Every structure is written in structure tokens, then in C-alpha cells.
Amino acid sequence: MMKLAKLKEFRAEQTENGVLHLVFDMPDRPMNVFSNAAIAELASFSEWLHGSDVKGVVIRSGKPSAFCAGADLAELGSAYDMIMAAPAEARDRVAFDHFFPLSQALRRIETAGKPIAAAIAGLALGGGGELALAAHHRVMVDEPKAAFGLPESLVGLLPGAGGTQRLPRLIGIEKALPVLLEGRRLSGNDALAAGVVDQLVPAGQEVIAAERWVLANAAASQPWDRAGWRPADADRASAIIGRERAEVLADTLGHYPAPLAILECVSEGLTQPFDDAIRTEMQIFSKLIQRREPRNMIRTLFLGRLDHDRLRKAGGIPAHVEQAVAAVSQVVQVDGNADAVLASAFARAGFLGSSVRTPAFDGVIANAAYWLEAEPITDGKRALRERLAQAYAVASKWRTQLSEDERRAADYLLVRNCGFPAYMGGAFSAAS
User: What is the mean pLDDT of the chain?
Assistant: First the structure.
């Protein structure tokens, strides 16, 4: 049997009953996330597992607060820079090669011929949720802090490690789409009712329950790997996805590519063999990650919110940050525009305000260019671009007075309080 390589982000603990515990426990971190190092170790473990003689595996966390909270978004930003630095014709391949190893590792784990159970205490979000879905059996603790979710769409991305393929196959398209498209979190009871988890147990009993299942199910496999298996709502897939797509476009006006990419993953992947489906998912993810929208949304809605909350807890948002936000907001004036042409352009571009009414979707979906940048250039687009140029000029004067974390926090406030659309990412961190 091949020797298991030394692990730092995980621990492998052998029990007397032959069940191995794979413990996710990143050193010097309060919460587990999928860093590049953690993904490499999981890939190494997945190869070792195929030749091992363990009876099965229980995947659990060594942290008291969470199973795994998702991706390392700081590393994600570095990956974006690496991808965009590559020649344009190579970017799809660079993105695919960089991100696909996690999907491959999870696939190798679920097809290793060993029963795999996940013992979930705390949050299983994003990549953590995808890790749980790759297990054959999921046990969750019955307490308020435990939750399952795939919130990638909230920062402009999609679950790229099999999440768009496993969840619809496991619980059906209709129940899966709110989790995928809206980032809805499922409590223990909701996850059990939906079929995402198989057992709900008191805190402290999840590992015992997971071990018991592993020992009783030596021939475990995923439903989609069994002969003759077919998705439960496959006959209605086209109708369900078509309805959801229309609703997404009515809500987002085509400014946010992630929900559309998720629906494309489900639509294309559900009819394919699973190994082909996860490659399709990654091909779609590889194009999405190159867009500006996820970069902007991660910076404002995630990193900016963290910076904002950290500043607030450290004594309050500094006065100069609030002054900078107020100065830009005063120039933009999403509300109170007497110019009907400009007000209409604000609404169509996705700016939010008490006097802004969302227009009917006009069939135009943003691609490489934002709606306000794309041809044809109308009077409304021209007026909006002039107004935003003024706002960016004001932001530029403040930018040198703000630290990097203060700029991100200011952009978060522009999105949260001042009507800026998240896909544009605010005005302080961007140069234009």
C-alpha cells in the first residue's frame, strides 16, 4: 500500500475499527477554507485512498465553528490576476487547469470504492458544501450554528467543484436552484427535509453516527454512478430551467452572469455522464472567473464587508471614510434625478434607490462590456457615463487619503447604502 504523504492542512487519524478520520484542521486559522495547499493535500489523499485498506472514511472538521467555509478568496484574487496575465487565447486553459484539481480530488474520493461519510458540525459552505456532497452519507448536528449552503452566486461565481452537478442530482433541480442561485442556507432540519443530509443528530454524536454508517455500508456508491440511474425531474428540466432563467433576467436585467452560468451548468451537465458533467461545469466556471463582475463582487460584498465590520468593531467607521462615501453619493444622486432620461438609465444599469423602479428586461444581456458601455450609445447611456465620470473623479481625490481596506469598505458602503450595483464594484478601488 502506498504511504500517505504528510498532511498539514488535514490530519489522517486511524481508528481501531478500521475507519479513517480525515480531519480538516488548517493550522493558524480559526476556520477551514480551501486554499491551494489544502486542495493539493486532498488530491494526494484521494490517490492514496484508492490503494488503501481502510474500511472507510469519516470526513470531519477539527474546528469548533465550521466544517469548511468555502474558498480562500484572497488566493482567488491572485488566481484571477494570474489568469488575466496569460495571453487571451490561453486563459480558458489556465483557469481550467488551476481550478479543476479540487473537482478531480472530490471525484476520486467518491469513486475510491470505500464508504465515505461527512460529519458536519457548524457551517458547510461553498467548497465545504461540495466536499460534503462528495461523501456518500452526510450527518449534521442539530443546532442553530450548523448550516449547508453554496453561496458562490452571491459573489458572482458558481460552485465549481461539482456543486452544480451533485446537488440537482441528489435533491432534484427545483429544490436545488434556490440554493445555487440565491445562496440560500439550509438549517439542519431544512437540509434533512430537502435530502441534502441523511441524518440529524445531537451535537457530539455526529462522528459516532458517521462511523456507524461507514461500517454498515461497505459497498456504498453515489446514486449517479449506479446503472440505470436517472435524475428525478429530468423530464421537466427544460421547463424548470427556462422559467428560472426568465425570472433571473427580470430580476437582474442581464447584469449578473453567475446565475445564468449556473443554469447553463445544470442544463448542460444533467444530461451528461458525471465525469463529463464536472468538466462542463469547470469549462463554464473558467470563462466566468475571467469576468469583471465576480472580481468586483468579491472585493466589495466579501472583502469590503469584512473590512467594514473590522473597522466598525475597532472603534467605528473612520470619519474620512464616511465623508468620502457621502461625497461620491452626492455626485451620483441615484435618487432625485429630475432628468427622466438619466433616471431611466440609472434604473436600466441596475442602480438601486427609493425612486428607482426596475424596468422590464429588454433582452440585452451584458457580455464583455457592461450595458452602459455597449453599443448602441444612447442619450441615457451617455448621460449616465458622464455622471459616473464625475463620481469617479471625486473618488480619485479621496483615494489617496484611504488605505486599501478603507477603500474596499467605502465601496461596500456605496453598494449597501447608496445604490451602486455590486457588479460594478463601487468607485474607490477601481481606477475608472
Answer: 94
Active site residue 13: no
Q: Is 41 a catalytic residue?
A: no
> For 203, what's the count of Cα atoms within 13 Å in the CB-facing half-sphere?
9
Residue 432 has pLDDT above 50, yes or no: no
Q: What is the 3-state secondary structure (H, E, C) of 178-192?
A: HHHHHCCCEEHHHHH
Please state, in angstroms and rounded to a whole number, the distance separating the CA atoms of residues 14 and 415: 49
pLDDT of amino acid 392: 95
398: nearest Cα among 324, 291, 316: 324
State the Cα–Cα distance between residues 404 and 393, nearest whole angstrom: 18
Q: Which of 9, 152, 206, 244 is catalytic?
A: 152
C-alpha cell at 212: 456507524
Q: Out of 9, 41, 130, 264, pick the active-site residue.
A: 130
- pLDDT per residue as tens digits for the range 122-147: 999 999 999 999 999 999 999 999 99
The 8-class DSSP code of residue 361 comes to P
Name the band, by pLDDT with cuts 50, 70 and 90, for residue 354.
Answer: low
